Amino acid sequence: MLGVLLAAVLEAQRIISLAPSLTEDLFAIGAGARVIAVDRYSARLPQARRLPQVGSMLDATPERILSLRPDLVVGVPLEATTLTALERAGVRSEILSSDTLAQDFATLRRLGRLTGTEPRAAALVRRLGMELQRLERAAAQRRRLRVFVVVATAPIYTAGRGSFVDELLRLANLENTAASPLPWTPYSAERLAGAHPDILIVSKDAQIDPRSAPWNLLQAVRAGRVVHLQDDLVPGPHVAALLEHLLRALDEWR
Fold it and tell me: Which domains, and CATH codes, for the chain?
């Protein structure tokens, strides 16, 4: 009985999330009702739209966060300075990485432990793993294509090795022409022109002008072989849906 009571006390009841992927994770594992505030970008999620905002990963201040009296603040490595300051102020803070699929699943499990929703988090991880395996088997039967992923355009950023996006491309039986050793990396217009992808994949937050350089130098763009993603290119419980959308969008060229 004492163990049960202690676990209940330790479960976070007033949570602030400083990253959209973590906000989505918390709602997906059944802890959304305990989220009291989010970062600016999490406000794009329907379930978090009415919650107070505490800024973005670059301008969230410990003072604003402390004024809301959280008992748990979660964020990503880019927010380590803010999270460390909160920890020193006596607020439990967690730095959670989701660059790879393995890290993404580990983050879901960790949030489950912090919120007392471990069974639901574990079930979600199992379901996502099974869905990704099913989609990988289906993709293996389709023609392999070379692709370039546009994460941002000013400057051009792409996803390289060590990112969950690169892992999704491999599961989709696609070759990432960026071949960068860094998860998220700037890419020059000259290198892009020499990449010669069969397909250009453009993230939801990026925009390209097919009539302007460097985009009009790519045969894929001139031939109309461009996929515009409708989902946010962030990790979280929708990664299997993101992979499925990508496979469907590529069907006409495979």
Answer: 2-126 (3.40.50.1980), 143-253 (3.40.50.1980)
